[in-house]
Automatic annotation (TrEMBL), chains A, B:
Its EC number is 3.5.1.16. It comes from Arthrobacter pigmenti. This is Acetylornithine deacetylase. PANTHER family: ACETYLORNITHINE DEACETYLASE (PTHR43808), PEPTIDASE M20 DIMERISATION DOMAIN-CONTAINING PROTEIN (PTHR43808:SF25). One of its GO terms (molecular function) is metal ion binding. Residues 204-316 form the Peptidase M20 dimerisation domain. Its cofactor is Zn(2+); Co(2+).
């Protein structure tokens, strides 16, 4: 437990540097770090971490090593384009508990930019929100990690345990970035991941599987189409079969701890579709990409088996096949009662003046990597946002300030602090 | 009416050159003359026509001139890549009726090549059929035009009227190729178009409109998808609304001459679809390409008005918009009783030993250009084929032989012949 004076020095330091923090966040947002195009943003992260005197590590993901891991998600991009950045702080004398401050640098596509009210990459601040693709998910969080650390030193203190800052790729598609960091040997007594979580702590979340369904057959000229096969038509009942499986899994929510009261916890999203080659030819093929969710405790392989069975029994006369195209992850639960959670709750209450609330989220989180495969309590906790993955994504500025203060207090309490020499 | 001896000399000449005709047809098929990639095939046509001493003309389509024509189909490719080839035969003395021998060089995409039993471009002959994309639709016809003409001269005769050989582009998407030939001033007393029509004459056919429908809205993160908008889902009822319009138009077939007994004459084909940007984002947009048919006598603008009204009243909460992307054509009827038809019927009966049958086809044909805008009777008549626009497209060899003979006899009878000097 920090004494109030120390805590005050730290939170004041967050306030003092907050304009610079926003500037840095905006600079990060201005790098369109879409999948496999994260390099310039990672360069910036590397430079910032290095300038703080951290020991730097940057490496390309190792496809062979990843492919042997049960939590690996099949990749559809080249691994050489995917690099993680880690900066490590090592104290003079290690007395406290070590920590990973994790965040992902990759962002999802903008969708049609003309549906945005502004450029997705201008990071404009307006009416208390910062806009832009990745502003909430999760460049504000990456910056919060960094400036929380800064605040401790700006307050004349030094953390008393090892801290690894991780800026990882692939969180939006496979989870292979955090998995690669774990495989590289990075471990700690706790991990903080400031995803946009409405100033709350994630208690449990779903696993996610990505797959692509191909529906095909042999049609002929459009003038004979009424007797023929049309793959676009045939795709919709296949989607319908998957929706039935989704409904079945949702109906089972009562038997899954922390999911009993979540509204529609299992979402099967048909996120992309393509099909056909020519307007006047009856389409012979149609493919669609699905993101399916599964409850914690269910192996991805078992869920995948059910999905495959569903696709074998659609009753369609078409050829229906599926391949995995990304996430192949299980969900996780942050077990109640950990020291890490207690320290976070204390920090949060000190900043917000209200108790830390936890909740269950139906979206993928890298927390599963640390929890399931590292035995590390994962504190996924971060600012208020709106429209992540949508248009005019934005993050709430004052929430970012308070989350940064909470993380700073957490670092100080968890790692311990010494007065600077 | 040709005397039997002359006719026999001509049909024998077709037989004599038939192996070379098949070789040339195969060579044409081996040029994958997909849209805007017809150059090498047009080079071949140009060389072949020129080697026969014809006066050559090759020109790029003129977008501005075309755009002013009511039969113009909006183009989505650059006009400079689209060239027509015409070779003109002029007799020493013009005594007979002039003729256009028309065919299109463009072919539709193959679809997934692994669904073919062989390469779509190898033009293999097997069990009496020549296989390949474009074999039936309509390179066999283009070659038949040319070798029918050859046969007359090989028989020691010279046609006694002007003949324009046209190898046009854009028949599979806009019809702008034949329209451009008409605009360039090519006209005649009749036109023969050997499309794959089962050894029959097309009496009537539909008009076609191509358009792309865009369904869009503002969704958000997949974790909130149950409350949100999904454009791929939303596209399906919009297709359903179009299907209702299709059913309405089909129900009206009884009031359209020559369509009373056609099975399902009006086809709305959803030929292509695309949508969404990311599997884990709820899709904000979905586009699909439609090929719609309309009866002869209905202005394309009127049909389009009905389609637009249909799309305004789908009841969808989505934004639904549509743009025209190709064909904007009316259908046509070949009125009974023309001299041209009588001459063709006579030639056909002389070769096949059975009466020429006519029928109504629910697919687009360039015949509408000559009929509607040139006042030229269009004889769309050609060989037996299977799976045009599908997989393993093929054309029946003996049918090609007989159609070539019929066209040769038609030329001789229509244009008249003189003994060669």
């Amino acid at each position: 437990m920090l004494n109030p004076g120390t805590a005050r020095r730290i939170t004041d330091a967050v306030d003092t540097a907050f304009d610079r923090q926003l500037e840095f966040t905006a600079e990060l947002v201005r790098h369109p770090s879409l999948r496999a195009a994260e390099s310039s943003a990672q360069d910036l992260m590397f430079t910032e971490l290095e300038s703080r005197g951290l020991a730097m590590d940057r490496w390309a993901l190792d496809g062979d090593a990843l492919a042997g891991h049960v939590g690996y998600g099949p990749s559809t991009v080249a691994f050489e384009d995917l690099t993680n950045v880690v900066g490590t702080y090592t104290p003079q004398e290690s007395k406290g508990r070590s920590l990973i401050l994790n965040g992902h640098i990759d962002v999802v596509p903008t969708g049609p930019e003309d549906t945005w009210e502004r450029s997705p990459w201008d990071a404009e601040i307006k009416d208390g929100w910062m806009y832009g693709r990745g502003s909430g998910d999760m460049k504000a969080g990456l910056a919060a990690n960094l400036f929380a650390f800064d605040a401790i030193r700006a307050a004349g203190l030094e953390p008393a345990a090892t801290i690894h800052f991780q800026s990882v790729v692939e969180e939006e598609c496979t989870g292979n970035g955090s998995l690669a960091a774990l495989q590289r040997g990075y471990t700690a007594d706790a991990v903080v991941i400031p995803e946009p979580e409405e100033n709350m702590l994630v208690r449990a979340n779903v696993g996610v599987i990505w797959f692509r369904v191909r529906v095909s057959g042999k049609p002929t000229h459009v003038r004979e189409m009424s007797s023929g096969f049309n793959a676009i038509d045939a795709a919709y009942p296949v989607m319908g079969a998957l929706r039935e499986l989704e409904a079945k899994w949702n109906a089972d929510q009562g038997s899954h701890r922390y999911f009993e009261d979540v509204h529609h916890p299992i979402n099967f999203n048909i996120g992309m579709i393509s099909g056909g080659d020519w307007p006047s030819s009856v389409p012979s093929w149609c493919e669609f990409d699905v993101r399916a969710a599964l409850y914690p405790g269910i192996a991805a392989a078992d869920a995948w088996g059910e999905i495959e069975e569903c696709l074998r029994n659609t009753g369609s006369e078409a050829n229906v096949s599926a391949e995995r195209t990304g996430f192949f992850s299980e969900g996780y639960v942050l077990e109640e009662g950990s020291d890490a959670e207690a320290v976070l709750a204390s920090a949060h209450e000190g900043v917000f003046g209200s108790a830390l609330r936890s909740f269950t989220t139906p979206g993928y989180l890298d927390g599963r990597v640390f929890t399931l495969y590292g035995g590390i309590p994962a504190l996924t906790y971060g600012p208020v946002s709106e429209a992540i993955h949508g248009f005019d994504e934005r993050v709430h500025i004052e929430s970012v300030r308070n989350v940064t203060k909470t993380i700073a207090l957490f670092i100080a309490d968890w790692c311990g602090v010494d007065e600077s020499a």
